[in-house]
């Protein structure tokens, strides 16, 4: 099977490594079935950006993990690296949509795929870090990436921006109370989730500790937040990732 490409934009080496671990384990990827590309590192080093058409031809599909970047930040507040990453992800998505390459963006993927397709993305429906209850829509019940997922499930979230409006050609698959668009599809094979199908409890706790001062939660409430997270039962989101692997592995 051709490997899947995991694109990462995390500066912290340990968090990036844990993202590879959790994605591999939760998605059921064998060791040669997932290739990680740290796009921020490539661009920061001044290396040549990938030839996306050639790169994607050698992979079964693309997964974009979470990121400290917010796509909806004003341009004047974005670092040169963030601007470069976003431009390169835009070029990647041009090829993904043109070639109809399977794509799954988790959290940061909502902003990247959403903005690329004309969605409104801003801070209106941001959610603090934690576990929330989500609902599968009628369209979601028919979608193969949600096969085996119950109509109502618990998932990990934590994001400053989210979809405010979607273009007419996008299909909402999962919704939530505080954040209405939790998963959507463009066309047949391009997906984005606001929740984290690639994140387990250990990974979430590690990220919460690492990003304690990044505005995802009030550090003074960390102990109570960690307790609530540990008490939540989160089993369904990983099925989305595993279904992506099974459906598109080639």
Can you walk me through this structure?
There is one protein chain. By secondary structure, this protein is an alpha/beta fold. It contains 9 helices and 11 strands. The longest helix is centred in the middle third of the chain and has 20 residues, at 80-99. The protein has a 9-stranded mixed beta sheet with strand order 2-1-3-4-11-10-9-6-7, with helices on both faces. It has helices spanning 13-27, 39-44, 52-57, 80-99, 108-116, 138-141, 201-210, 222-231, 237-248; strands at residues 4-8, 34-38, 62-64, 103-106, 120-122, 127-136, 152-159, 162-165, 170-176, 183-186, 190-193. Helix 1 runs antiparallel to helix 7.
Compose a concise summary of this entry.
It is built from nine helices and eleven strands.
* Low-confidence sequence ranges: none
Order of helices and strands: EHEHHEHEHEEHEEEEEHHH
Report the biggest beta sheet as strand number plus sense, adding barrel if it closes: 9 strands, mixed
User: What distance separates the N and C termini?
Assistant: 5 Å
Number of strands: 11
Strand content: 15-25%
**How do the strands line up in the largest sheet?**
2-1-3-4-11-10-9-6-7
Please give the radius of gyration in angstroms: 17 Å
Give the overall average pLDDT: 95
Structural class: alpha/beta
Shape summary: globular
The helix content, as a percent range, equals: 25-40%
> What's the helix count?
9
């Amino acid at each position: 099977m051709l490997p899947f490409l995991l694109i990462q934009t995390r500066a912290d080496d340990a968090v990036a490594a844990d993202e590879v671990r959790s994605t591999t384990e939760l998605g059921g990827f064998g060791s040669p079935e997932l290739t990680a590309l740290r796009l921020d590192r490539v661009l920061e080093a001044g290396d040549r950006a990938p030839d996306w058409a050639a790169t994607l031809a050698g992979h079964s599909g693309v997964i974009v993990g979470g990121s400290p970047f917010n796509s909806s930040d004003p341009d004047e507040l974005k670092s040169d690296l963030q601007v470069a990453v976003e431009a390169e992800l835009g070029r990647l998505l041009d090829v993904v949509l043109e070639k109809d390459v399977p794509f799954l963006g988790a959290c940061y993927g909502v902003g990247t795929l959403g903005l690329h397709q004309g969605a409104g993305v801003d801070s209106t429906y941001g959610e603090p870090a934690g576990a929330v209850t989500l609902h599968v829509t009628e369209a979601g019940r028919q979608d193969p990436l949600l096969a085996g997922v119950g109509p109502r499930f618990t998932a990990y979230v934590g994001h400053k921006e989210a979809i405010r409006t979607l273009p007419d050609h996008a299909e909402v698959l999962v919704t939530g109370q505080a954040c209405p668009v939790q998963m959507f599809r463009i066309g047949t094979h391009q997906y984005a989730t606001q929740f984290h199908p690639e994140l387990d409890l250990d990974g979430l706790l590690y990220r919460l500790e690492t990003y304690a001062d990044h505005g995802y939660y009030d550090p003074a409430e960390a102990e109570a937040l960690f307790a609530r997270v540990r008490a939540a039962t989160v089993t369904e989101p990983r099925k989305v990732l595993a279904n992506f692997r099974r459906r598109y592995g080639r």
